[in-house]
Design goal:
37% helix, 7-stranded mixed β-sheet, single chain, 275 residues, alpha/beta, 6-stranded mixed β-sheet, 20% strand
């Protein structure tokens, strides 16, 4: 048995009914308009969805549950309260992203959520999908992948958690500034997913539908393989109502017969019926 298949033995999730997935909301003290839109979305999800998955980068930065939850600022306290309310109404799952990879069980307990394994094999009424945040698929960005392997190391994280609050936040701000500067000089295709990495996901996990966020390039790409079936590669929208000239947000709606990207603006995505 391959290592990928062994991994997924403990990463399986059974979700019946209507499942919504949203990613890359990037909440922070300077995103009041984005929060207003996402707050409305959470209320709707609590009423209409049987399960809600937040697929990473819920927050623009996260330096540890112990720091963030001890005395949260007003914007975060409001977000936590509504997330907790949503978690009481529907099944809520939270995945780690590249901005908030230090999210842990304490946060999930606070908001009545389950920490999603990475990657996660999710059995829905529509069919089985593989979900991951997506940054690990950007293999052409070698500098980022080196950084990712370092900060995801448990030893490095333990050392980081031993630091004081102020130092953690300074390190996070410095890392973010350096990342933004580096991204300005990178070619756009380097920061997108690598086609080979996506293909490997389909082949290694033997799935027909792959869903991820991270790249901020929403789409559903369909590959008809004839007798071998149809593959669907779904990229989730990001949310930004504060810093973009084109305010946006959206989510993936999964039901028994349809797979649909839903926009919070007037952008229309196609609806895909179950094959």
């Amino acid at each position: 048995m391959s290592s990928s298949k062994k991994l997924l033995l403990s990463n399986k999730l059974q979700l019946a009914g209507t499942v919504w997935l949203a990613s890359d909301i990037h909440l922070g003290p300077d995103t009041p308009r984005t929060w207003a839109q996402f707050s409305a979305f959470l209320q709707r999800a609590g009423e209409e969805a049987d399960a809600l998955i937040i697929g990473g980068d819920l927050f623009d930065a996260w330096v540890g549950d112990d720091v963030a939850l001890k005395a949260p600022p007003e914007w975060l306290a409001q977000a936590l309260a509504q997330l907790a309310d949503t978690g009481k109404k529907t099944q809520l799952y939270v995945a780690r992203g590249n901005r908030d990879f230090l999210i842990g069980e304490k946060l999930c307990h606070r908001i009545h959520a389950t920490l999603l394994p990475e990657p996660a094999l999710i059995h829905t009424d529509y069919g089985t999908i593989l979900f991951t945040h997506g940054d690990e698929l950007c293999t052409d960005d070698r500098a980022y992948q080196r950084f990712r392997s370092i900060v995801r190391n448990p030893v490095v994280q333990k050392l980081f958690f031993s630091l004081g609050t102020d130092l953690r936040e300074r390190i996070a701000r410095m890392a973010r500034r350096r990342s933004m500067q580096a991204n300005k000089t990178k070619r756009a295709e380097i920061m997108n997913v690598n086609a080979g990495a996506v293909k490997d996901m389909f082949m290694n996990y033997e799935i027909k539908t792959l869903v991820h966020g991270h790249t901020h390039r929403p789409a559903i790409r369909v590959f008809d393989l004839g007798q071998s079936g149809v593959l669907r590669h779904v990229v989730l929208p990001d949310w930004d109502y504060d810093h973009s000239e084109s305010p946006r947000g959206g989510w993936l709606h999964i039901a028994a017969d349809t797979l649909q990207l839903v926009s919070t603006t007037d952008h229309d995505f196609p609806i895909f019926e179950r094959p």
